[in-house]
Specification:
With 413 residues, the protein is α/β, with parallel strands linked by helices. Helix content is 28%, strand content 25%. The strands form 5 sheets. Strands 9-12-13-14-15-16-17-18 form an 8-stranded parallel sheet. It has a 6-stranded mixed sheet with strand order 4-3-8-22-23-24, covered by helices on one side. The longest helix is centred in the C-terminal third of the chain and has 19 residues.
Length: 413
């Protein structure tokens, strides 16, 4: 036995054992965790320091791989529920994604009219204050008409200082990230104002060029919203936003690794170019995640889902995804470069540690993104087939974790 930490006896503690545990950036085989007060109080490799006790609530997860709970910074809904003006629908989406291992998430809102946007931000603040969400992400309305994706073109508008102030006030400190097209009139000022307010400014849905994107980064932008998607593409005489975002070490790069948004080779290229610490996997999931094919809505827009791919009704435009973070995690391992253990550690960083780091003080307060000592005991257990077999939130088992259906990993088909 080679424990990394020993703790004093504590009557409230529990021991979790599994064949593989990833904690503190290390792979422990076999591994164990000691949980107390909803936090990780100890971890180690080999046999646990004390015999397991069913009466104490100890658990042996057997052949499972235990990793930190996933952190999703960009998700619109799932399980038939969407984030917006209905807190019950938002809570349904949270419950669905938790059952797939996402223990921390930002609820993403799409473009809406000024009044509807305020209503949605206010309603969602309730979910944050109730502890269901870590915050709100505004993906719109300050986006490019030319790169609007699945957003209402008639409601896209220039960032206005007065509207931004109202939105932040109604959010009551719950808005954590805002996506902006910096080329819009007032875009760079909005990026600076968001950064000054402690809100993550993200560049996305942009037709802007290389130089304006560089200025946005200089003004405080630190995230690329679903890199490559809804952005001006790379050109050898006008590198555009993608090159500006990837070449600056201060910027984290969202990727949707669902087999539709980017090719696996693009994922490997980005990871190889920028390193492991800047890549952040997100689902961009909408209400149809986990549901049957059919007709759904993303904000005010009609969406058709066929073969698990969501597109605007009657068009080829992708409208978010139907993937979950356990699928992103599995795809990161399957399609990344390197040995299996290297891929496991990379997947943990890209689905937990990296997105948590972007949340800054929020992540520090919650203690998320790792299973190191003192962190909140948010964890997901994956069986040998990559299926979620157990989820703990603050050390408490999520009851009735649903079996994940046979979600085909479409990459490389």
């Amino acid at each position: 036995m080679s424990p990394s930490t020993r703790t004093e006896p504590d009557t409230g503690r529990r021991i979790i054992v599994a064949d593989t545990v990833v904690a503190g950036g290390r792979i422990l085989r076999p591994g164990w965790l000691i949980l107390t007060g909803g936090r990780v109080a100890g971890s180690g490799q080999g046999r646990p320091p004390h015999p397991l006790s069913a009466a104490r609530g100890d658990v042996d997860l057997g052949a499972a791989t235990v990793v930190p709970g996933f952190v999703d910074l960009h998700v619109h809904g799932g399980g038939g529920g969407s984030f917006g003006t209905d807190p019950e629908a938002g809570a349904r989406a949270v419950d669905f994604h938790r059952r797939h291992g996402t223990t921390t998430m930002l609820g993403s809102l799409v473009t809406a009219s000024p009044g509807d946007l305020l209503d949605a931000v206010s309603a969602q603040a309730e979910l944050v204050e109730d502890g269901l969400l870590a915050g709100t992400h505004l993906e719109g309305p300050w986006l490019s008409r030319h790169r609007c994706g699945a957003h209402r073109v008639d409601q896209l508008r220039d960032p206005d200082a007065a509207e931004l102030t109202r939105v932040l006030a109604v959010g009551r400190g719950t808005i954590r990230m805002v996506t902006v097209a910096p080329e819009r009139s007032g875009g760079l000022d909005a990026v600076a104002a968001l950064s000054d307010a402690g809100v993550l400014a993200a560049v996305g849905h942009t037709d802007g060029g290389y130089e304006v994107t560089r200025r946005a980064i200089g003004a405080g932008a630190r995230v690329a919203t679903h890199l490559f998607n809804a952005m001006r593409p790379v050109h050898h005489r006008e590198p555009g936003p993608i090159v500006a975002l990837t070449e600056d070490d201060r910027v984290a790069l969202e990727l949707v690794l669902d087999g539709q948004h980017v090719h696996p080779a693009i994922y490997r290229q980005v990871e190889g170019s920028v390193g492991l610490d800047r890549t952040v996997l997100v689902t961009d999931a909408m209400a149809a995640a986990g549901m049957a094919d059919g007709s759904y809505r993303l904000g005010d827009l009609a969406v058709d889902v066929r073969d698990r791919v969501a597109r605007l009704a009657g068009r080829d435009t992708i409208a978010g995804s139907t993937a979950t973070m356990d699928v992103q995690f599995a795809n990161a391992i399957r399609f990344g470069a390197g040995a299996p253990d290297e891929r496991l550690l990379a997947a943990v960083r890209q689905t937990s540690a990296n997105p948590a780091r972007l949340l800054g003080p929020t992540a520090e307060r919650l203690g998320i993104g790792d299973l190191g000592i003192g962190h909140r005991a948010d964890l997901v257990a994956l069986d040998p087939h990559g299926q979620v077999s157990a989820v703990l939130v603050a050390g408490e088992h999520l009851p009735g974790v649903a079996d994940r259906d046979d979600f085909a990993i479409r990459c490389g088909r």
